[in-house]
Specification:
This protein is of the alpha+beta class and 431 residues long. It has two domains: 212 residues, no CATH class; 177 residues, no CATH class. 55% of the residues lie in helices and 17% in strands. Strands 2-3-8-5-7-6 form a six-stranded mixed beta barrel. The longest helix has 42 residues. The N terminus is likely disordered.
Amino acid sequence: MIQVLFYGGLCFNAKRMFQPLSVFIGLRYVRSRQHKFFVSLITWVSLAGVSLGVAALIVILSVMNGFEGELRERLLSLNAQAHVTATGEAAGDADAALRARLQRLPGVVGVAPYMELTALAVRQPEMLPVQLRGIDPTLEAAVADVRPLLVQGDLGSLQPGSNAIILGRDIADQLGVQLGDAVTLLVPMATANGTPEPRLREFKVGGVFQAGLEDHDNTLVLAQLADVRAFAPLAQGASGLRLRFTDALKVDQFMPAVRAAVGSGYTTSDWTQENASYFRAIRIEKTMMALILLLIVGVAAFNIVAMLVMVVNDKRTDIAILRTFGASPRSIMQTFIVQGLAIGWFGVAAGIVLGVGLARNVSTIVPLLERLLHFQFLDSQVYYITSIPAELHLHDVAWISAAAFALTLLSTVYPALSAARTPPADALRYE
């Protein structure tokens, strides 16, 4: 009580110092030991709730960013970052001038010809639909290098005239083939009058790759570009050039120059357009997960409201004395806003430290938990990705912090207004 009279006197004699005093009194209330046990309990629960909510948001979004990055790397492991597709006759490597022109563009690090068509891989009694892609191995390495993904064989087996193919691991398992085995490929075609005339050719397995992505391992077959053209020169499919840039995330900045360079007769597309459904689904999941986890912070903010309401009721006499000595309703409101913000923002800061620490050490923490719990989170027999990746993005931490700060600020408004509206006479009537 003596402290309240002292602070009230300062407010009365030096109104210009009021705002610093509101902050000082609010912080004194935060570390006051005179709170009731229930009020202190709610304070600690609120602080812990805000901290856990912020930390959970940072860790979960970092893990989802990691999975998104892992998916992006696997999609681009065998796919080009951009395609220039011929709309008329197949250009492929015949248009060397176009390839050289594209190679000189800023940001382009690799250009390679390709031809892609749908086929059937036949090995009795199995028959599988596959995507047959003809490539030039000498140029393909600069666009999408398959060599790190090979589990059997090597890229050198794709020589012109060799009729060799490199299969995805799942295709090889389903057909039951090994290196050197023969696989028959069937390409549906039609004559000029529309009569079906499928083309068949026997190819030899020269390698097996495992990209860790079902779309590649289950469907993709690589062959020498010259062999594919000789096998099915009139087949309906895509042909043109595949491109790689210095940064896959900046492909939208490089594509205008590519479109200007190719001119008519070609269409262009990039990996963000071709795989838009994947990343749209990830964005939706991240948004919904963020909203759900933000509810944890919201519940903690409601606890701050309850705690401040009880503190206001407990401090009605102090509020009345401050008002009697000249404190304005605004100053009283600021005092309790400071108290709520100190609790909430300390929780946010603790959550940021905890969340960033966990997100940066996910690769260490997860194996430790797996050993302690004798449980594998991502079973290698079920999932392609067997470890939990994490990518901590600064902008995620920034918006999570801002949202948590805003929620804690809003939670202080009602109790502070209630304190500011407390009539001094009513509060001192029974004192």
